[in-house]
């Protein structure tokens, strides 16, 4: 037995000090655990001493080599355990397909022991940028969007609902009705409280040329929301404003998108966000549609109009809306900064600035709209 193990407590303290000098991070509680572990193992068995230190003192895989060198130098005669012999294994990568049937049986699997690493195509699509989709992937994305439940944040309703116990306001009418069954004694007392209803959601989708790679997926997302018969209004923004709520209420997505494309005369054209928002505010928004609603603008912020006009209309919109959310697919690009004139003008009047380039981003957007997630603050340009 090496002399250093004559006093396990002293050896533990000295060895931990050596590890820290070598750059390893060893917390105090790990040192105490190591000293306690040395009291529980046979100090004459090198493997036990080694694994007592390895299990309690090493927190990162990249620290194993340094630990082995210091252990061999510090404990001298205690040999390092030999690594187990590795057996070659074949790895099979498979794609999960819920519609496919498994061929073969257990005999085939037992005949050739392999490790199967499986990944889900659906999970891959959830994080893939819409601009990189092919036609087949777009078709799969349509099905995923149908599962998104888009509702506005809840708000108190004027309609009251009955409550249990003594919560809320006394409901005299129901209390008297119950008292008639007990000879006029109000034994059972009823109470009410304000109910909840979902806020209206208004979606304005930029269909200009700069948004062409994202316009189809985002319109499909809007269609899924409108077709669900919620309190959803939809508009297209380009060089003009086009209301699409009626066209997108069709259940058939192909028919709905065909009608929407026919209604939008400026698809893949220019962008005048300020003029479009001015018309929305004048004809629909300020008059009532946007009051207390969650207004979502899906645009990259590239605008050919006057940025001051856009800032003025965004300020008007923010005054009446419950929350203004700006969805920019380019926000996920590494190094992105909101330097476009339209984006820079609108950002001070935005309550949440989020991404919109993938299914995963749209799921997080739905949570922001519903109030289930903390709003993402709009950063200053």
What does the model show?
Helix content is 43%, strand content 16%. The protein has helices at 8-21, 28-40, 46-57, 64-75, 106-111, 121-127, 135-145, 172-179, 212-227, 245-248, 253-263, 273-289, 307-320, 341-346, 359-370, and strands at residues 91-96, 115-120, 154-163, 169-170, 191-198, 201-206, 232-237, 241-243, 294-298, 323-328, 352-355. Helix 1 (8-21) runs antiparallel to helix 2 and helix 12 (273-289) packs parallel to helix 13. The protein starts with 7 loop residues before the first helix and ends in an 11-residue tail after the last helix. The model is unreliable at 100-109 (pLDDT under 50).
Structure described in brief:
The protein is an alpha/beta fold. It has helices at residues 8-21, 28-40, 46-57, 64-75, 106-111, 121-127, 135-145, 172-179, 212-227, 245-248, 253-263, 273-289, 307-320, 341-346, 359-370; strands at residues 91-96, 115-120, 154-163, 169-170, 191-198, 201-206, 232-237, 241-243, 294-298, 323-328, 352-355. The longest helix is centred in the last third of the chain and has 17 residues, at 273-289.
Write the layout of secondary structure elements.
Layout: H1 8-21, H2 28-40, H3 46-57, H4 64-75, E1 91-96, H5 106-111, E2 115-120, H6 121-127, H7 135-145, E3 154-163, E4 169-170, H8 172-179, E5 191-198, E6 201-206, H9 212-227, E7 232-237, E8 241-243, H10 245-248, H11 253-263, H12 273-289, E9 294-298, H13 307-320, E10 323-328, H14 341-346, E11 352-355, H15 359-370
Parallel strand pairs: 1-2, 6-7, 6-9, 9-10, 10-11
Antiparallel strand pairs: 3-5, 4-5, 7-8
């Amino acid at each position: 037995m090496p002399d250093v193990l004559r006093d396990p407590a002293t050896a533990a303290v000295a060895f931990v000090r050596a590890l820290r000098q070598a750059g390893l991070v060893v917390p105090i509680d790990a040192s105490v655990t190591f000293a306690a572990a040395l009291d529980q193992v046979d100090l004459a068995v090198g493997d036990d001493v080694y694994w007592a230190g390895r299990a309690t003192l090493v927190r990162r895989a990249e620290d194993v080599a340094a630990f082995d060198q210091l252990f061999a130098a510090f404990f001298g005669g205690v040999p390092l355990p030999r690594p187990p012999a590795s057996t070659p294994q074949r790895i099979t990568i498979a794609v999960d397909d819920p519609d496919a049937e498994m061929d073969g049986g257990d005999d085939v699997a037992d005949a050739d022991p392999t490790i199967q690493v499986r990944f889900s195509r659906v999970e891959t699509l959830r994080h893939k940028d819409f601009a990189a989709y092919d036609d087949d992937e777009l078709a799969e994305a349509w099905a995923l969007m149908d599962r998104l439940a888009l509702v506005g944040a809840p708000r108190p309703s004027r309609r009251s609902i009955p409550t249990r116990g003594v919560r809320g306001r006394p409901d005299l009418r129901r209390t008297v009705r119950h008292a008639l069954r007990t000879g006029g004694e109000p034994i059972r007392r009823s109470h009410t409280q304000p109910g909840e209803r979902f806020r209206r959601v208004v979606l304005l989708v930029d269909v200009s040329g700069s948004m062409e790679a994202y316009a189809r997926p985002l319109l499909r997302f809007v269609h899924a929301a409108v077709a669900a018969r919620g309190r959803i209004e939809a508009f297209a923004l380009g060089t003009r404003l086009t209301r699409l709520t009626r066209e997108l209420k069709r259940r058939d997505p192909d028919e709905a998108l065909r009608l929407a494309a026919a209604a939008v005369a400026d698809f893949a054209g220019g962008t005048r966000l300020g003029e479009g928002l001015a018309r929305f505010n004048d004809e629909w928004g300020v008059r009532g549609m946007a009051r207390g609603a969650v207004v979502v603008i899906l645009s990259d912020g590239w605008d050919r109009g006057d940025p001051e006009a856009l800032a003025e209309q965004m300020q008007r919109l923010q005054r009446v809306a419950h929350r203004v959310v700006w969805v920019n697919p380019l926000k996920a690009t590494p190094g992105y900064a909101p330097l476009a004139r339209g984006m820079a003008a609108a950002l001070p009047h935005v309550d949440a600035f989020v991404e919109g380039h993938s299914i995963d981003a749209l799921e997080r957007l739905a949570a922001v709209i519903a109030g289930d997630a903390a709003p993402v603050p709009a950063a200053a340009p």
